[in-house]
Amino acid sequence: MNRLAQFQAACGLTLIGDVPAPGSDKLGPARVTVTEPPSEQSVQAAKKLEEFYDLVAAAGGAVERVTGLTREIAAKHSEIMSTFDLMKSSSMRQEVEALTQQLNASAQASAEILETMKRETDKLKATPEMESHFIGVIRIEENQRRYLLYRLSKAMEAYERQQNSVESQYRAQTERQIKIKYTNPDGSAIDDETAKELAQAVLENNTTSSIFQQSKDVLAQIIETRNDIYHIERSMRTLNQLFNDLAFLVHEQGEIMDVVLRNIETTTKYVEAGRKEMKKARKYQRRSRRKLCCLVLVVAAIIALFVLAAVLGKTL
């Protein structure tokens, strides 16, 4: 067992070269390298990023849950609208309510984590010295936070579209049920406009019309559908409150993007000015080359004349 190698590894030393055999006087060339420990700044930056990426993982997981729950809720609503079993539909409505509560909790948790991420980044900007010290960490954290905010906004917009679509489908289903199951007092079929008015009356909890007395079972189903619409509208109000909570974050991101765009515009102007200066430089360079060529030709012609004169002088 090579004890020397173990000692070198434990001390962070690497010995390059031949190790002489015991009792040998011959020494081979050797070089010792010492691994420099990381600086305190690097250690602090790594620790900050490690803690921050724990928040990134938590926020990303919450956004994924929002997306997954949105799909589950949409599937449950489709099942409710396609079933005629009151017991089964009632059970599925309870499942939708539970899923909606989970979605709202996940969205709220994600928004709170984003706020925590902002506070942690702001701590690194407490003083100009700290901001300069952690400038690389700050940029990474801000980019990650903006990306997560974008993902959460997109997920909530998808949920909002899904809820609006389901509400429209429930309203259309109510109108179809009224047209199919009910008739006017004179026995004639109910037209689209009357069906829409009766559906709105149900939504407003006004079921005193004599038409609804024709079938209590159908009215019970319509009222259940109305309750579904109520749940959706309540969920939308919760969603709207969450969007209000995110509004400041989105506005702040917009301000940051405005600064970036202004910097890009300024850089573009500088680049354009630089291109013009480069064109001028190339033009001056071409002129200088032409002048140099002319000068060389003149000098060559003068030398040729002197040489020619010398040759003619010798011959004469």
TrEMBL record:
SUPFAM superfamilies recorded: t-snare proteins
Keywords of the record: Membrane, Transmembrane, Transmembrane helix
Membrane-related topology note: Single-pass type IV membrane protein
InterPro entries: SNARE (IPR010989), Syntaxin (IPR045242), Syntaxin_N (IPR006011), T_SNARE_dom (IPR000727)
Subcellular location: Membrane
PROSITE patterns for this protein: T_SNARE
GO CC annotations on file: endomembrane system; plasma membrane; SNARE complex
A Gene Ontology biological process term: vesicle fusion
Domain T-SNARE coiled-coil homology: 219-281
Chief location: membrane
UniProt family annotation: Belongs to the syntaxin family.
Entry protein name: Target SNARE, putative
UniProt source species: Trypanosoma cruzi (strain CL Brener)
